[in-house]
Structure formats: C-alpha cells, structure tokens
C-alpha cells in the first residue's frame, strides 16, 4: 500500500510561526485548505490548530468544513459558477467575485435563504487570471453596493499562481489606493484588503509590505515552509510536514539497461539510457504508487542513495544500487513531495491518508 503522512507537531509549529508573524504585523489570515481535498481527518487537524477562517476553491471541501465545525468562517476563493450559487451561499460565508451578474444571483439567493452573503471583489493587477479591471472597478462597486443581502467586506488580488507575476510594493500600494478610493467615493468601510498569499510573506519579513494590506490567504507556506517568492524554504519553518510512504512489492537485482526494440512508453516518450551501464546490474524496488497518483517530477526519495528509475500508471521503480539498507519486500520507502505532488496525491482515492505516528503501527503489523 501507499499512504501520505502528516506530522501534527511540525504542522502546529509552522502554524504558530505564521500566527506570530501576522500578529506582530496586525494582519488577519486564513488557512487555504484546498490542497487537503476535503479530507475530513486532515481538516480536523487544521481546525484543531485554532483557525477561525478557512479558504477553499471546492464547494465539497467547504461543505465538509461546515460539517466538522459550523462556526468556522469559510471563504470560496474563486469566482462562483452561476449554477452553484445556492450551495455557495449555504457553504461559504464569504466568496471572491468578479462578475456582476453572478453577484446579483448571490443576492437573490441570499435573500431567499434569509442570509447576508459577504463578498470580496478581486482586482486585476497584472496576473491576468481573475479580477475586475482597474478602469471598471468604480462602476462595478457602484452597482453591487445597491444589491440587497450582499455585504462587501473587501477587495483583493491574486498574483503568481498562473504566470508567476510577483507581488511588489507598487502593485500592493495600488490595491490599497483602490480601497481608499472606494471608501471615499461611496462612504463605505471596506474591512479587508486581501493582498497577501504565501508568495507575499517575504515582503513582511523585509518590512516592505504596505500597511494597508491586512489580510492573507496562506496554504503552501503553512504546509511546506516555502518562501515562494525566492523558491526556497524559510529557515524558521519545517518543509516536511507531509511525506509519501510506499510499500515495496518487488525487489530484484536486474540489468540497468533494458533490452529489445524500443517504441514509446505510456507517456508517449522513448527513454534513452546510458550505454556504459550495459552489463551492469542493480537492485530495483517496485513500489505500489504510480503516475495515476503523482508525476515523478514532484517526488524525491528521502534516502539520497536511491534514484527513481521509471514509472508506469500504477508502479514506480526505484534503483537501490547495491541495496546497502538491506530492504526487502514489504518495507516502506519514504518520499519528499512538493506542493503539486501532494495535491495530486491528496486527490487520489488510491493513496491512504495517515498521521506520521501511524507508520510505526504499519511497520509492527508487517513484522508480525
């Protein structure tokens, strides 16, 4: 079997590091939970950290959060589909919006359900994903302020996720100025300027985050300790909260170079091999996880003496060299995964989800 493990202590440590950082800078923040893919076990652990607000881009996941704890404030962090407005008003306390006609439907639905639905309007700042254009946002606000059962609680922006456009002082100052303009023109208070995500955290540590940015949405840095801006790990955080464990289902000494006439493999490639390895052998372990669950580019064996030799839909082959560890069939190989790798694994129904302390239970059961 293959399974993901979550280390509770390291997760809590990362959370507390971020909590202290944001508190020192008078910033509110939400945990982005979309990577957990609605897994009840892991979501409960996030909620146990003491979070008050959780973001997600999947309605099923928000519904799971509300099932676990209805008091958690939930945020739907992509423009809603019109066909989902009823579920959004029921499962999300706040939604991020860019389309007036959709907000009208949210207004009608909230009125029918006897609720007030809160919205954050996303502003385009160069990433060219979701966002109202700057020359249209005043007119946009003038219309949505007239809608019943809608409370405008903020404006925000998204950067980096699609094209890698980095946040900087100029862009975030611009976002703060938009907020000031709306408040001045319409005599309305806008509580949130949600201009921060994991990639924006280094602007805090450098002391260059505009004071008006008062709300962050953080996922990757919480789970991986990542300084996304510089593509490295913060030295005060853990980057191994999660790991993949996969059981060896075959272990045999085999030639290092395949033989026969070559065509294309499962992914449409024709691999090449170092011909100097002809005649050489190594121990090859097959583990029970494959390309259906994760792409190998997002996966690294924790033991650096091992190397991924190849993969197919349901199996990955690991070159163990001379197998100094004396591994055998039934043993586990542990892997470090990155953000996209973990997202794929969490979305796989074929990979179990455990806490790290459960590894010992697995190993004892195997020994017996």
Automatic annotation (TrEMBL):
Which InterPro entries does the UniProt record give? Ala_racemase, Ala_racemase_N, PLP-binding_barrel
Q: Does the keyword Secreted apply?
A: no
- Respond yes or no to whether keyword GTP-binding is given for this record: no
Q: Which cofactor does it need?
A: pyridoxal 5'-phosphate
Q: Which CDD domains match?
A: PLPDE_III_AR_like_1
**All residue ranges annotated as the Alanine racemase N-terminal domain in the record:** 7-225
Q: Which Pfam families match?
A: Ala_racemase_N
Q: Which key words are in the record? A: Isomerase, Pyridoxal phosphate
What protein name does the entry list? Alanine/ornithine racemase family PLP-dependent enzyme
Q: Which organism is it from?
A: Albibacterium profundi
